[in-house]
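Much of the work behind modern protein science is quiet bookkeeping, done one molecule at a time. The protein below has been through that process, and both of its lines are reproduced in full.
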Amino acid sequence: MMRKRSIMVASIAAATALMLTACTPGSNNANPSDENTDRTVKTDVSAMGDLTLTVWDQEVRGGQDEQMTKLNAAFEEKYPNITIKRVSQSFDDLNKTLRLALSGDDAPDVVQANNARNSMGAFVQAGQIVSLDPWAEAYGWEDRYSESVLTYSRYSSDGVTFGEGSIFGLPQVGEVVGVFYSKSALKDAGVEVPETWDDFTSALKTVKDAGQTPLLLGNIEKWPAIHDFGLVQGALVPSEEIAKLGFGNEGASWTTPENEEAASTLATWAKDGYFNEGVNGTDYDAAWQKLTDGSGTFLIGGSWLAADLEDAMGDDVGFFAPTSSVGEGIHTTGGTGLPFTVTSASQHPDLAAAYIDFITNEDAMQVLADTGNLPVVNTADYAPESGVQADVFGVFHSVTTDGVLLPYLDYATPTMADTLGSSLQGLLDGRTSPEEFTKTIEKDYADFVAQN
């Protein structure tokens, strides 16, 4: 899922919260997840009788639709007593219709819910989806998934704390932000592929001195620079601090020397001409396309760009993420696809959980890889033999096993996408100092935390 859509959804969170309060019966009731803690779990689907399971997903694109079609067919073949009623909608349409559907009398059993506070967090708070902890224990999901991935689907039972607490959903696919690069441009500059953060910053200077544009960025939409800043922050700020800030939980601060250093680093790159000219007036798509025509050397971006870049550049494009300066392994921004959740209205929660287990098991991960998706579990086992997708698979595996997968910073508050995006534009064009930048972001974060 491209991050642009998640950020657009985050920007309307305030209206969403009002909608939920107004239309959700039972929003003042105890969370049904509390009732699941000691429940007896049934895992024998064959013994559940003839049932229909209604599943809402947003896997509408080519490879995404193909993997769901194959997995649903395999589930029905294994369990002929089960019929899956699939309702597939675009991401935007799903978010528009899901809230009302969850409060109706004919709610689906399984739904994909955006991880963010204004979606999954709001559903937890309203008691519309249930804790999956009993099934996680029965199926061994905490052994299957790395903790840094499960963090994205954890909430406290009241929906206030994000990244901690019970598991409320399981994703199938992963996302990771790293650095795409032109192999030929690096060779021309006499630079090896960087491994550490120091290697990367040194390479930027060498590339610049060689007369090339080191970094490409199109930031007219404001959100792309969040990824660039996230990579810098991950290298310089302790991951525990970033997690609290990114998930909007108390106990952290933006106004620290480390965060100011991260802001200063990005501002210095811009001042020293490391970016292409006019980043705040350049379109996101136009910027990454410049990598394909030799107009730049490095592009900080997400794994969702890999297929398009490979189509245009073939073997000339590569992908890496530098190791952090403040911890073991790679610390970089990333996430997951929309997790599959079980609704509190489902009459067949054991069947719903069994279905989620089936579409996220080892065989399912192979289907995901075969259909061009990035499996979120044991990613390296399914990597292509070569090419940029092999690099992407390898980086995601390293981050989720030996490093830290850090939250998208716009997750933090309902207004953080706008606050951070605008502030980064000011930082990049010199209107905002690193100190002013951190103070502005701190106010958004602190105001939100104080309300919870």
Q: What stands out?
A: The longest helix spans residues 434-451. The radius of gyration is 22 Å. The longest strand covers residues 174-182.
